[in-house]
From TrEMBL:
Coiled coil: none annotated. Pfam families: Lactamase_B. Residues 66-140 form the Metallo-beta-lactamase domain. GO terms for molecular function: transferase activity. CDD domains: DHPS-like_MBL-fold (cd07713). It comes from Geodermatophilus tzadiensis. The lineage of its organism: Bacteria, Bacillati, Actinomycetota, Actinomycetes, Geodermatophilales. InterPro entries: DHPS-like_MBL-fold (IPR041712), Metallo-B-lactamas (IPR001279), Metallo-beta-lactamase_dom (IPR052926), RibonucZ/Hydroxyglut_hydro (IPR036866). This is 7, 8-dihydropterin-6-yl-methyl-4-(Beta-D-ribofuranosyl)aminobenzene 5'-phosphate synthase. It comes from the Bacteria. SUPFAM superfamilies: Metallo-hydrolase/oxidoreductase (SSF56281).
Length: 319
């Protein structure tokens, strides 16, 4: 169902830039966000700004008519990073009505413990989110990544709902894509060092099948697509959202696009070309997108590109 407005607030991202400016679509966090004790200053306090960490978390507030619903999409990497920034931004996480996890990598779920102490919430996940994974880099014996625990989440009071297929939340106003179709010939996923445990051995895990996105249809504008890492590929994700909804207009693409580093930089050009053809009104790539891809997107879509930063609020209203 189309909505009247969606507001996406980036609580945690890899960057906090206190000098970025606001405009009619984007509101930046003030430089003075957060105040802490610091005895070296007169008055004994200083401003901290917001935390930036290699993780992602966003608050999504959807309004349709007189009804407003707020969801949390991912939770950052550190146990207290998301809640610290929420406090500094004046966000009361008690108002969150549900949680959506984009996938199981630890840099998207680490802050859940801080949230669980405040609320008892429904949580939508893909059933493969509990997959054990590791990175087997050359010259190492492999580093196993922290694995999310279903039992721990249930014990904290979360009501976990596993859904492989697309699902609708908020009275049909929010789409969670479930598994995303892989149709492009260049978005091939993770390189061989990224492995998953299959029950008997470690195997290359290129697809990260638990990767899913959150989609909202803003009336008269088109789709707003929010990704965590975009492991399925930014283009695959956007096109999949269009196929599921029947809406042919991409209004905004926000979140991690996983185009950083030598394994993914070779696909920056075709990704940017395909996204430019979709002609979104707003592109705010953050987290794992990488600076080269951000620069390419800024050059190809100068009117749409907005640099991401912790504490940024995007307001996308119906036409």
């Amino acid at each position: 169902m189309p909505v009247d407005e969606v507001v996406v607030t980036t609580i945690i991202d890899n960057v906090f830039d206190a000098l970025l400016t606001s405009d009619d679509r984007v509101t930046r966090a003030p430089f003075a966000s957060g105040s802490v004790a610091a005895p070296q200053f007169e008055g004994g306090r200083t401003f901290t700004g917001l935390r930036a960490e290699h993780g992602f978390s966003a608050l999504v507030t959807v309004r349709r008519g007189e009804t407003t619903t707020t969801l949390l999409f991912d939770a950052g990497v550190s146990p207290d990073g998301m809640t610290t920034n929420a406090d500094r931004l004046g966000i009361d996480l008690q108002g969150v009505q549900g949680v959506v996890l984009s996938h199981g990598h630890f840099d998207h779920v680490g802050g859940l413990a801080g949230l669980a102490t405040r609320s008892r919430l429904p949580m939508t996940v893909h059933p493969l989110i509990w997959t054990r994974r590791r990175l087997l880099l050359p010259g190492t014996g492999g580093t196993e990544l922290p694995t999310l625990s279903s039992a721990a989440l249930e014990a904290e009071g979360f009501r976990v709902m596993e859904r492989r297929e697309p699902s609708l939340l908020v009275d049909g106003c929010v789409l969670i894509t479930g598994e995303i179709d892989r149709t492009t010939d260049f978005e091939r996923g993770m390189p061989p060092p990224h492995q998953a445990w299959d029950g008997s051995d470690w195997r290359h895990d290129p697809l990260v099948l638990d990767d899913q996105a959150l989609v909202v249809h803003v009336r008269g504008r088109g789709l707003v697509v929010l990704t965590g890492c975009g492991h399925a590929g930014a283009v695959n994700t956007a096109r999949h959202a269009m196929r599921l909804t029947g809406v042919r207009r991409l209004h905004a693409l926000l979140g991690g696009l996983h185009l950083g580093g030598p394994a993914f930089e070779p696909i920056i050009t075709p990704t940017v070309q395909a996204l430019a053809e979709l002609a979104p009104d707003l592109v705010a790539p953050g987290h794992c997108t990488g600076w080269r891809a951000q620069a390419a997107l800024a050059a190809a879509l100068p009117d749409a590109f907005v640099p991401s930063s912790s504490g940024t609020r995007y307001t996308l209203a119906a036409a």
